[in-house]
C-alpha cells in the first residue's frame, strides 16, 4: 500500500524484532553501542557473582583508610556458600573469620547474604553490616566507629 502525500499512514512505536522481551527473559539484542567514551561499548551484563564481588570491593575501597592504620593484616575473600556438616540445624553463617599468617582472613558468603536481602538497597546494607561487624571483631573496634557513612 503506497502512502499518498498528506496521508497519516506510517509506522509508529517500537520496532519489531529480536529486541523485544520474549517470555519474560528480558530484552534481547544490543543494549549499548560503541561511542567516544566507550570504544568497545558498555558492558551490558554482569553475573550476580560479579555484581556481588564489585559491591564488596566498593565497600572495601571506602574502608581503605582503616586498613592502612590497623596493625593486623586482614584479607577479605568471597565464596558462594559455606560447607556445613551434616545435621547442621543453626542459621547458615553469612561470614567467618579465620586466622591467617600475619593477620586474619574474613570469608564473606554470597548466597546466604543474597538470600536474606529483599532488594538491592537491602543487599548493600547487609554487606556493609557483615563487613563492619567482622572488621570490628578483628580490630577490636565498635562497627559504628569504622563506618564512613555515619
UniProtKB/TrEMBL annotation:
<dbReference type="InterPro" id="IPR038555">
    <property type="entry name" value="Zincin_1_sf"/>
</dbReference>
<protein>
    <submittedName>
        <fullName>Metallopeptidase family protein</fullName>
    </submittedName>
</protein>
<feature type="region of interest" description="Disordered">
    <location>
        <begin position="1"/>
        <end position="48"/>
    </location>
</feature>
<dbReference type="Pfam" id="PF06262">
    <property type="entry name" value="Zincin_1"/>
</dbReference>
<dbReference type="InterPro" id="IPR010428">
    <property type="entry name" value="Zincin_1"/>
</dbReference>
Amino acid at each position: 500500500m503506497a502512502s499518498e502525500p498528506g496521508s497519516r499512514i506510517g509506522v509508529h512505536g517500537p520496532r519489531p524484532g529480536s529486541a523485544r522481551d520474549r517470555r519474560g527473559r528480558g530484552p534481547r539484542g544490543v543494549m549499548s553501542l560503541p561511542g567516544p567514551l566507550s570504544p568497545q561499548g558498555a558492558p551490558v551484563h554482569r553475573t550476580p557473582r560479579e555484581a556481588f564481588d564489585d559491591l564488596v570491593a566498593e565497600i572495601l575501597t571506602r574502608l581503605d583508610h582503616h586498613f592502612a592504620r590497623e596493625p593486623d593484616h586482614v584479607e577479605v575473600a568471597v565464596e558462594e556458600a559455606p560447607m556445613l556438616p551434616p545435621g547442621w540445624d543453626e542459621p547458615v553463617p553469612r561470614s567467618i573469620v579465620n586466622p591467617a599468617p600475619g593477620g586474619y582472613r574474613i570469608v564473606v558468603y554470597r548466597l546466604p547474604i543474597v538470600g536474606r536481602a529483599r532488594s538491592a538497597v537491602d543487599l548493600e546494607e547487609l554487606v556493609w553490616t557483615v563487613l563492619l561487624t567482622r572488621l570490628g571483631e578483628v580490630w577490636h573496634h565498635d562497627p559504628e566507629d569504622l563506618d564512613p557513612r555515619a
